[in-house]
Amino acid sequence: MDSFINETRLVDVSSRPSGVAFEPHFSVQEVSSMWGVGRETVRQLSRDEPGVLRFRIGGKKKNTRYSIPESVVNRLHSRFSDLAVSNHLKT
Q: Domain for residue 52, yes or no?
């Protein structure tokens, strides 16, 4: 049984729901810090990516918050890392 101790009780994580909704999610700022790129770069890369949640606060586009699941972060990183390597090998 996979488990961990949460405060004073044992929690069985094998019975936890799985899927993208239950993964850790990251903000644009968190991903940009992890990757060392600008926030606008992360926004553009994740804008139309399946699984990314966008929350518009008020009516202004500039108040849109992104919630990027861990699996999407990994997928994007893998995709663009592979692209960078193949472009580097062409030169």
A: yes
CA distance 47 to 80: 15
Domain that holds residue 32: 23-90
Give the count of beta carbons closer than 10 Å to the beta carbon of residue 69: 21
In tens, the pLDDT along 33-55 reads 999 999 999 999 998 999 999 98
Within a domain: 67: yes
Q: CA-CA distance, 70 to 11, in Å (whole number)?
A: 22
- Indicate whether 13 belongs to any domain: no
Q: Each residue of 66-79: pLDDT tens digit?
A: 999 999 999 999 98
First to last CA, the chain: 50
User: pTM for this structure?
Assistant: 0.68
Residue type present at position 86: S
| Residue 33 and residue 68 in contact, taking contact as beta carbons nearer than 8 Å | no
Query: What is the number of domains present in the chain?
Result: 1
